[in-house]
Design brief:
It contains 13 helices and twelve strands. The chain has a seven-stranded parallel β-sheet, sandwiched between helices. Strands 2-1-3-4-5 form a five-stranded parallel β-sheet. It folds into two domains: 115 residues, NAD(P)-binding Rossmann-like Domain (Rossmann fold), CATH 3.40.50; 182 residues, 3-Layer(aba) Sandwich (Rossmann fold). By secondary structure, it is of the alpha/beta class. The longest helix is centred in the last third of the chain and has 19 residues. 40% of the residues are buried. Bound molecules: (2R)-2,3-dihydroxypropanoic acid (DGY).
Length: 321
């Protein structure tokens, strides 16, 4: 008998067809964000769950799923899953690392360029019919060459951003709970800094940490105060790492020069004060959204799920830490 699997949101069609051929598949909903009541209602008799960062998989969900064996998240971040609860119950939890590194790093650079060169405001200016001809001081931005990029969280994505930054002649400093060996720092041309020091020195601060209790509001109101008035903050990781209200105030008052955000504290809600500001670029969590990457993520999540259901160790198992 084929195992029963709940899919909380459609995958790209090729991956969904493949999954449907291997398991007894129930697609929970076509709505963008699965209503929790539906998740709780449908998980009951399933052995597998293929879910997304928009689904909160906590004790209540697991209580409703006595037969559940595998939770395959179609994302690299797993902050939407209560890992300890899952591990206590012997559930396998998997994610989709590596395949999204380059796409997310590309988007980071896009945000760095969009904010430092004010691209979105300039585009709006043209569309509003306000371009009357070249002017010496029209949309003056900040040059990247020679400036300092501070990367918070120096895992795969942080390092991919660093590689790109060197091509723009940026100096790269980083902060991570586990600093690199000096030889590797030398090879990657990066230097370690304590967090506060990084915030004081960087012209652009880019966040690539995972969301854990220790990183909640890591960029707090007080820490925003440490940044240069001319600095730019980029967040493509997880919204709650930044105290969003404090960021909106800093941008509105001119305390901070600009920000580029792909993620939000209470996603999909965005702090209303950010909406009216010209010095922030707001994206709808599209860091990994290239066709190639999303396809790889879908197939990877499916493979992890099937491996777990067959009793094989999934390629991307999140081990208890
Ligand atoms: C992830 O995978 O965690 C990203 O936020 C979405 O691709």
């Amino acid at each position: 008998m084929k195992p029963k699997v709940l899919l909380t949101h459609p995958l790209l069609p090729e991956a969904m067809d493949y999954l449907a051929s291997e398991v007894e598949l129930e697609l929970a909903t076509r709505e963008m964000i699965l209503p929790r009541s539906e998740l709780l209602e449908r998980i009951g008799d399933k052995q597998g769950l293929l879910c997304f960062l928009t689904d909160t998989i906590d004790r209540e969900v697991m209580d409703r799923a006595p037969e559940l064996k595998v939770i395959a998240n179609c994302a690299v971040g797993v902050n939407n899953i209560d890992l300890k609860e899952a591990w206590n119950r012997g559930l396998l939890v998997t994610n989709t690392p590596e395949v999204l590194t380059e796409a997310t790093a590309d988007l980071t650079l896009a945000l760095i360029l969009a904010t430092t060169r004010r691209l979105v405001a300039a585009d709006r200016f043209c569309r509003e019919g306000r371009f009357r001809g070249w002017q010496i001081d029209l949309f003056l931005g900040q040059e990247l060459s020679g400036r300092t990029l501070g990367i918070i969280g120096f895992g795969r994505i942080g390092r991919a951003v660093a590689r790109r930054a060197l091509a723009f002649n940026l100096k790269v400093i980083y902060h991570d709970p586990q600093p690199l060996q000096p030889a590797l720092e030398k090879e990657l041309q990066v230097e370690y800094r304590e967090l506060e020091e990084l915030l004081r020195q960087a012209d652009i601060v880019s966040i690539h940490a995972s969301l854990r209790p220790q990183s909640y509001h890591l960029i707090s109101r007080d820490r925003l105060e440490l940044m240069k008035r001319t600095a730019v903050l980029i967040n493509v990781a997880r919204g709650p790492i930044v105290e969003e209200k404090a960021l909106a105030e800093a941008l509105a008052s001119g305390r901070l020069w600009a920000a580029g955000l792909d993620v939000y504290e209470n996603e999909p809600e965005i702090t209303p004060e950010l909406m009216g500001l010209d010095n922030v670029v707001l994206l709808p969590h599209i860091g990994s959204a290239t066709y190639e990457t999303r396809k790889k993520m879908c197939f990877m999540a499916v493979k992890n799920l099937l491996q777990g259901l067959r009793g094989e160790p999934p390629d991307n198992l999140i081990e208890p830490f």
